[in-house]
Amino acid sequence: AGSQLREIFDKINNLLSGKFVQCGGRTVSVTQHPEGLDFVYYKLAEKFVNQGEEEVASHHDAAFPIAVVASGIWEMHPRVGDLFLAHLHKKCPYSVPFYPALKEGTSMEEYQRMLGYQVKDSKMEEQDHFLKRMSGLIRLYAAIIQLRWPYGNKQGTHPHGLNCGWRWLAQMLNMEPLVDVTATLLFDFLEVCGNALMKQYQIQFWKMMLLIQEDYVPRIEAITSSGQMGSLMRFKQFLEKCLQQKEVPLPKGALPSSFWRS
């Protein structure tokens, strides 16, 4: 409910503002230690990113309530935003976007970690699990760039708004696609913030969508084997439907204005 989100936001904001906050049966304040605030900034940003790869990965709708709180905290405490991006880029280099190259002297295990894979006891995680986590992270990012905390200061601009999403999309299309990863993340990104980008960029947005369909999708097809077509087919169907209807639907789970009265 909207009232619950306000409580969560106020508690985090109070903590970062140096007020005393009830936590785990204790009353704490960042002023109790000279490095308390830096520590809390770091851990909070890490927590937001973790929610992307855990909660949003499993429940896509969760992107919106988490993102609206993260966006509001970012606006009031810019340091959290910088650290959020640092944690996000480390866990998911595709959010930069950046595809790390294998350099001489880098072990395979280290390289897999650089690509965002979890490696435990020299065993790399399954591709499905990896893609699910990356989807959660990109969906959270795509939700943050379009949402503002409704009770914040509306005078300023969004600290990391849709222009950053437009830039991400353009940079993705300037890179050689990767099997599975590129189609999955483009679909996740456009499903979550395509509607907002369409409203903001209008004719430019549709030119971009046409470019993806006519030029970029064939490049993904060229590197995809018949057994790896799932994510690409889903993305192609999404593009076709949007271009036919000249409309990107509102994402499932988006928060209507009535939500804040709940």
Give the SSE layout.
Blueprint: H1 2-16, E1 21-23, E2 26-28, H2 36-58, H3 63-76, H4 78-91, H5 108-114, E3 119-120, E4 123-124, H6 127-144, H7 162-173, H8 181-223, H9 230-245
Antiparallel strand pairs: 1-2, 3-4
Helix pairs in contact: 1-3, 2-3, 2-4, 2-6, 3-4, 3-6, 6-8, 7-8, 8-9
Protein name: mRNA export factor GLE1
Main location: cytoplasm
Keywords: Coiled coil, Cytoplasm, mRNA transport, Nuclear pore complex, Nucleus, Protein transport, Translocation, Transport
N- and C-termini, Cα separation: 5 Å
Uncertain regions spanning at least 5 consecutive residues: none
Report the CATH architecture: Alpha Horseshoe
> Could you say how many structural domains there are in total?
1
> Which structural class do you get from the secondary structure elements?
mainly alpha
- Give the tally of β-strands: 4
Describe the structure.
The chain has 262 residues and is mostly helical. The protein has one domain (1-261): Serine Threonine Protein Phosphatase 5, Tetratricopeptide repeat (Alpha Horseshoe), CATH 1.25.40.510. It is built from nine helices and four strands; from the N terminus they run αββααααββαααα. It starts with a helix and ends in a 17-residue tail after the last helix. The model has no long low-confidence stretch (mean pLDDT 95).
